[in-house]
Amino acid sequence: MDKNELRNYFSKNWHEYYYLDFFKEYGFKRKQCIKCKRFFWTLDENRNTCNDSSCDGYSFIGKKIEDIDYIEAWKKIENFFIKNGHESIRRYPVVARWFPDLYFVVASVVNFYRKVNGNIDFELPADKVIVPQFCLRFNDLENVGITGRHYVSFVMVGQHTIPEQNGYWKDETIRLDFELLTKEFRIDPIEITFIEDVWIGSQAFGYSLEYFVRGLELGNAVFTEFEFYGNSFRRLSKRFVDMGAGLERFPWLLSGKPNSYLITFEPVINFIIKSEGIRIDDDFLFKFHYNAGYFDLTEIDIEDFYKNIGSKIGLNIEEIKNKINLYSSIFRIADFSRALLLAINDGALPSNVGGGYNLRIILRKMLKYYEQNKFNFDLIKIFEILANQLEYFDNTLKESIDVIQKVIEVEKKKYQNTKQQAIKVVKKILSEKGKLEKDDIRLLYESFGVRPEFLEEELGIRIDKKIIEDIRKKEEIRIEERKINVPNIEVKEMYYDDVYEFEAKIEKIIDSYVILDRTAFFPMQGGQKYDTGYIENSKVIEVIKIGKTILHKVDSIENLKEGQIVKCKIDVERRKQLTIHHDSAHIILAAARKVLGKHVWQAGAEKDVDKARIDITHFENLSEKQIEEIENYANEIVNKNLKIEKEILDRSEAEKKYGFRIYQGGYVPEKKIRIVKIGDIDIEACSGTHGNNTKEIGLIKIISTKKISDDIIRIEFVAGDAAIKFLKEKEKILDEICNFLNCSYEEAIEKVKDLFNLWKERRKKIK
Fold this sequence. Notes:
Strand order of the largest sheet: 1-2-8-9-10-11-7-6-3
Distance between the termini: 75 Å
Number of strands: 26
Largest sheet: 9 strands, mixed
CATH architecture of the largest domain: 2-Layer Sandwich
Shape: globular
Number of helices: 23
Number of domains: 5
């Protein structure tokens, strides 16, 4: 069923879904809009349109209710809900590491999405919460800065509760939202309408009531009650109130300003216009937005639109374009800067893949607007102003300014290099062929990293949308699960208990895989390689975990049978080395964060016996000095003999206690989380094996670093016995070099230099 079918179904059964005692008590009437035909609830006997801007326009522009700034608007909302029994919680990161299907938080409800065994679950840190959640959306870039209401970064006021867990349901939700508008913001009740609608999430969905005032949608109360089931749907075991309101719209409505950017980004705009000596023509903006009302640039002919507006306000197309281009550049710089500040602060970086590419797009657009308008103001000052303005929401944002400055410098260089390279290659192709063909566009992307969008926006070359989609599809990485028909057998796990010899019963044998009723063999997980050893005389060569089932691959099943009690033995030395490498990965991550900055997050890891690696988020190659500092600090941690603690916590408790840094390795598909804590330097949700203190590691040695993508650096290292073995091998090589050159260790470098210079001279003579 699509959204229209669901909307029709719920509206047909409106008495069950939309009728509220609240509506009856206050005297709301249900009507059908004469324009859009949607159903709505109103106190106005004479109203025959729904109050949506597409039907009624923006009648609030120029009609002030009260002066209120952006932060004050949130404080009023926050105080109202606290007085009504809600807990105000801090914003969650905009990088949604706890949920596997999204790069960024796109709505406040995502904060409370959890995935357990492939199903969506909701978890709240309190019975009733209110949250100022910053969200990032990248689907409206063309509209940002022009329509007056579109943003990449915005605050969704999230009002959330679960009725089955000491919460409330429809009547109380709408009563609270109505009283917020009428009592806290003094809006005339007759101006408020509630429009019936439907909201569909990734799996769950619900019917909703959107509330409007003077043509402006302020919020949408969604009653998430269903999930899709085959061709139909069924009720969820746990219902969820998902009310989301746009904070930016409250002060816009109350002030009657021409657009929301003027209030949301007031400190930034004031700085820019003062620095550049620009005057914003308020009269033009009032006329433009009042006459334009609701519009979407992706759905209209822009030339006709500007021409039509021009005829209404007495300006020609060029005059309108010039003003809009200037003002929208200022508004976009403010919005994109805020999005970058939040994302980088929360652990994302511009790159050429995934969510990082969205950040790169807005950063490059921001630089483009800056250059096109020949602005001279200090870009970094914008981030400082935003960090100060948003301090009430998050007092850590200032800590990211230095990193952002470095990121912008690096991205500027990359942008210029990419542009020069693209121009050079494109000119060559055009001189040979006269046009860019499909294979050329693919070659530009795959060999030179030049995306089709870059060719369109920066070089003005129109690209067939099918080619862009084709390249995007090729970027998607699909990982196929191992095709083993696994029965659902829950195996008792003993690998965290220092058990290396044990007896168990064989529950099932599938091909060369043995399933035991209990096991101390560690399966491949958390980036850590599996244990090996023996089940009776059969060698265990691989251990994997699928769901709650653990499978042991053996070299022979000849003397094994189902129901048999078997003796099992684990390779202790292998486990010890894997454990040391896993402890070291956590320590190197902490050391990298200390040396490079708090933008460093884990982006991948592998812990094997001979060596290990950890991938971290960072925007440029590491210098020799940085590598040395990371290694030195890591070994300082080792020598401090810090206690390594492990505890099992409910996920919501772990998040509340330790924050979202625990998700270094990504989301955890369980309701309970195993937390590994190394002193106060690193706290993570981790399924790997760990020692008892850092002193057990002995020594950590970084053996190489390299950049594997625009925003990820790979650090390879060895620790413990593997580090000693590595150093002995290096020493052996050095011995051989010294013997060959007949010199001491101290003389080796100069001898090699002399030999190299001699080789260069001889080579020149031969040529």
